[in-house]
């Protein structure tokens, strides 16, 4: 059974300041917790319902699980449903940014759900890293982790001074704008950086100054814009179709 | 000022049974209400804050607006924020389905937010109609309308017996599966139907039997699947890049 202090900790880790203070984050829900176990990522604690433990015996073989009723987990979870398991995971040391291949960089994507959806589509297309400006949503926000549908175990999100990073980068920097070159006609290079901007303001002026290729998804109808996660998926598909 | 009965009606229209009973639906939030006014769609009632009325005088010129405080609107709205305006709109008579060009058909897309996001991306790519199976989410659900970001005024969602419709269709029927032809290599015809399946079960067996071309977005990484709205956007982009 989970102790009161453990349940209190879970509840606290829903908030960024406690994630920072304790160096831990939450992974909630069946799919995401199973991805964590399959990936062999070190856990600080795992709480799960008797049913979850019963159904996933082999994945849980070498793990200490704290059996907890679903009602208890739902009380402290940030999710409304799907609380068969909650893991407390240490926030990893940040890996070094690898600029040798294609790099996806986000400039001020502030919605946690959008960030998670972008991590999922980046994983689909084989990206191992995403670079985040300091103005992006927290990659350890529970809504972000949930929206990745397990892809957070395969894609490292690396928060950095994006302007500093791109200032020292010699390859092409593609940026998504509403008035760039038609992405269907763009001949993408073998490597480069793709920058996607914030939901409300797009790419910031200081990053825009470092973009070498402005690109656009051509519009055929009346919508003014696309959601940033959708736009990311479509542009990455255009990049990868030639590889 | 809005009357008690009017506020009660707004609250009721958050539910499908009352939308059906009264033949009306809600459009909430600044962006969506403005799109409605610009499109000249007939309203049954419009409630708006003094600020909204002040800021949109020209759009509101020939409209009777019921001035209402934001707190009142928030109380009866299904949205947590962004309640500067709420319109009550008559559910239109269903238009006839036009199968002469490219048609997007959804088979059991049950999440209202996904449906709205699909309507938005369909609008971006110039689709005027989307065909919905009877198992899809309600296109007049407030979450759907919100997620369209105004595109609901340009894209007609037409609910029908999808199996019956496709049984009498002579053109190519493309369907998204996890084991179809690579969409990057597919040579799309000038017209056809694209079927996207449900979030959890994909395309149903009875519709699968009518699909003439199974297609797939190629995976380069570890994610098991893409969100259905994301997948729709990516496939439609592949269709439209040749047009």
From TrEMBL, chains A, B:
GO biological process, alphabetically ordered:
methylation; RNA processing
Q: What is the lineage of its organism?
A: Bacteria, Pseudomonadati, Pseudomonadota, Gammaproteobacteria, Alteromonadales
Q: Which residues belong to any copy of the tRNA/rRNA methyltransferase SpoU type domain?
A: 103-236
A GO MF label? RNA binding
Does the keyword Plastid feature in the UniProt annotation?
A: no
> Which UniProt key words apply to this protein?
Methyltransferase, Transferase
- Could you tell me which residue ranges the MRM3-like substrate binding domain spans? 5-81
Q: Which domain of life is it from?
A: Bacteria
Q: Which InterPro entries match?
A: Alpha/beta_knot_MTases, MRM3-like_sub_bind, Ribosomal_eL30-like_sf, rRNA_Methyltransferase, SpoU_MeTrfase, tRNA_m1G_MTases_N
Q: What is this protein called?
A: RNA methyltransferase
Question: Which family does the record assign?
Answer: Belongs to the class IV-like SAM-binding methyltransferase superfamily. RNA methyltransferase TrmH family.
